[in-house]
Amino acid sequence: MENRPRAWSVRGTNQDAMVSTESSPIQSRAISVIIPTYQEAGSLPTLLDRLAALRDGEWDLEVIVVDDDSRDGTEELFASRGNSWERLIVRRTERGLSSAVLRGMDESSNEILLVMDADGSHPPEAIPAMAQALDDGADFSLGSRYVPGGSTEDGWGVLRWVNSKIATVMARPFTSVRDPMSGFFCIKRSTWKAGAPLDPIGYKIGLELIVKCRCRNVVEVPIHFSTRCEGESKLTLRVQWEYLLHILNLCRFKYPRLASFLPFALVGLSGIGVYTGLLALLDLAFAGSFEPWLRILIAIVLTMTWNFAWDRRLAFWDARGSIVRQYLGFVAICAIPLIVTYFVTWSFSETTVLPLAGLLGSVIGSAFGLVFNWFGNRWLVFRRA
Known about the structure:
- By secondary structure, this protein is an alpha/beta fold.
- It has two domains: 4-254, Spore Coat Polysaccharide Biosynthesis Protein SpsA, Chain A, CATH 3.90.550; 256-381, no CATH class.
- It has 13 helices and twelve strands.
- The protein has helices at residues 44-56, 74-81, 97-107, 127-135, 158-170, 189-194, 205-212, 237-254, 256-286, 292-315, 323-333, 335-349, 354-381, and strands at residues 4-7, 10-11, 18-19, 30-37, 60-67, 86-90, 112-115, 140-144, 151-152, 185-188, 217-222, 224-225.
- The strands form three sheets. The protein has an eight-stranded mixed beta sheet. The chain has a two-stranded antiparallel ribbon with strand order 2-3.
- Helix 8 (237-254) crosses helix 9, helix 9 (256-286) packs antiparallel against helix 13 (354-381) and helix 12 (335-349) packs antiparallel against helix 13 (354-381).
- The longest helix has 31 residues, at 256-286.
- It is elongated, with a radius of gyration of 27 Å.
- The two termini are 27 Å apart.
């Protein structure tokens, strides 16, 4: 069943979020707020003061800041504030936003867990509405820029906006949430603990939690997303690459068969090009030395090795066992399509150039064995652990 979000009814200014009068009185006022940081000392004082204002409004907030050894004055800031409800965890060796969030969740003590950024982009005043959504039955709530009532501050930049939209589209196979890239979200400890083991890559752990905790009832609370006033954005090419890897891992979790078959088919398609190219090279270099049947055989063996290496990495990533045994099994399973490829290539080589004959042979052989090869390798060769 697809995760179905619904927008929460919130009234007021961009900074002051109020729960709709249609909502029932909130029961859970004890919330652990987890804030991962790196080089955010300039933004923290204002954020902590705004969270303190919520505590003055009878919210029992526990604030846990997990800092990746910024050495920018964050430790001195907490020492000077001296509030018992504000806790700083400094990680001296480990790095990464997602792992920092998990560390904060592990160290927290309340049932309601809320994660937000330290740069001032997420309004703490929306926390009551997000907690209310969980009290009313949501599995997960998040602060959303893209539902009615939500907005993004001017000056965000076209490239960053396009990046956000592309990332949102890439997340569509897992959830219909409009703002799955939001780092401002709320989840119950019991929901988190009941989910599958987390293995987030990069900076967007919210999507990981929605998928692996099987959150079907997701509520989006409209927020005004502000541009950071201090520090620099952490959105780099490396972060974008890590997001692609994250999407791949989530595909493998939610759609394991599809995530195996599609790479297998793509590797097979690449093998057609490799086989044709090898025949062209061998024809150019050894036309007077090797007989056509030997050139075909060499090209088949090298192409099969290419396919095996990439299938093992991309299509059967979860397999365990001896690589030698897997290679021999791979050859055995693919034997019939390989024989078809060989004889079709040999047959056409008598009337056309060898590379073109190889292209025809590999296309026919691949079409003949695609489904059979995948099932045979999945169940007999690349067995899961």
